[in-house]
Each structure stands twice: as structure tokens, then as C-alpha cells.
Amino acid sequence: xxxxxxxxxxxxxxxxxxxxxxxxxxxxxxxxxxxxxxxxxxxxxxxxxxxxxxxxxxxxxxxxxxxxxxxxxxxxxxxxxxxxxxxxxxxxxxxxxxxxxxxxxxxxxxxxxxxxxxxxxxxxxxxxxxxxxxxxxxxxxxxxxxxxxxxxxxxxxxxxxxxxxxxxxxxxxxxxxxxxxxxxxxxxxxxxxxxxxxxxxxxxxxxxxxxxxxxxxxxxxxxxxxxxxxxxxxxxxxxxxxxxxxxxxxxxxx
Length: 254
Hints:
Elements: H1 2-11, H2 14-27, H3 34-48, H4 50-66, E1 74-78, H5 83-93, E2 97-100, E3 106-109, E4 116-118, E5 126-134, H6 138-150, E6 154-163, H7 168-174, E7 178-184, H8 187-195, H9 201-212, H10 214-224, H11 228-232, H12 237-248
Parallel strand pairs: 1-2, 1-5, 5-6, 6-7
Antiparallel strand pairs: 2-3, 3-4
Helix pairs in contact: 1-2, 2-3, 3-4, 3-5, 8-9, 9-10
């Protein structure tokens, strides 16, 4: 829920965030054509949606002010939500893009995403990884960092749209990675969104409960919505597997 609301804030709406994810899912089987198709899709979003346009421009300016552009050899993004931001920033910064999948397979594209190929080496090259949000940096440790290391490259910088303040930034810094974020999640961020009508009162209350007590708020939500897990088991494979994981491990009092 929090991830979806976060993307609602920075992409434009819940519907647009969901549509982008669906677009990726529909095109992921062809890793060679995916980057160009997704670039074309997010360019339309960039041109049409003022919220997303503003976020991308802010990220672009942040990079220029905090990182020597000439030192960046590649920009990378990991499956799936990172690609909302990493691909268009590669295009705007005129840097080649590394598309990383969860199975650690990697594909490099030129800045216009017109030439994509699977790669095995970027020996000695420096990489900026762009991500949607950072929590405890588990995706970095499990996949993104190893994927770049497997290529002989070095992940030097990380830029996330949102830092959820759960220790991920420090974990990356301890590994020698410069970790930056545009914003940190707190109640004030979502209060502003609620007052602007981007999210409703129910969503705002859910987020505040989660921020103050993640486990307790989720247990309360599951108890108040007994059909939530059952419906989740009928969703796509990823959602169903997460729901089953909650059941198997007795999360949230299940």
C-alpha cells in the first residue's frame, strides 16, 4: 500500500502508476525491446503529467549538482519500478542504461534505447543506480550490487526518489556507495499530499498508521479486511507469492 501511494505521489496518480507497471509486465518477456518501448512510454508521461515531469526535473538537477556527470559511465535501474525513473534519466543525461532483472541478467542500451544487447562486462566503469525508493537496501544487496559487480563495474552512487528511513542509506554508505534521496517519508509529506487532494483520508490514515507502527498497522488492516489475503492469492503471480509468504510465516497474525 505504501509503495503504491508513494508512486501515486511521484508519477501522477494511482491509475497511472498501475498502468505503467502493467505496461512493463506486458513487455518484460522481450528484454531487448523493453527499454525502447518503456522510454517511449515514460516520455509521454513526462510530457503529459506535471507531477512526474517535476520529479524527473528535480532528479536531473540533483544529479548535476551533487555528482560529476563526466564520472558517470552508466545509469542502471532494477526490475521493475526503478525503470520508471532510471530510463528517462539516462535519456536526458545522454548516458547508456543498464537494465537489471531480478535474476541478475543485465542488458545495456544506448541513451536513446535504440540499441540494446545483453552484456557480460563493463570492466572498470562507474555506475549510478537510480531507484524508486530505499528501505533496508535488501534489493541492492541481493541483486543490484552483485549484478554490477558480475560485470566488473562499480556501483558508486545511488539516487532514490524516496528514503523510507529504515537504515538502507547507512547500509549503502557502509559499503562505500554514496546514497542520495530527493525526499524522506514522514507524515508531513503525506499530509501535504492529502491537503492537495492527491490521496484521500483513508489512504492518509493508513500511511500514518504504517509509519508509526508498520507491523501493528498491517496486522490491524488484515484483521479488518479478512478477504484481503484471499483476494491477493488470486492476483498475479508476484502478489500471490507474497500473500502465501505471509500465510506460511504467520505474518500479521495469520
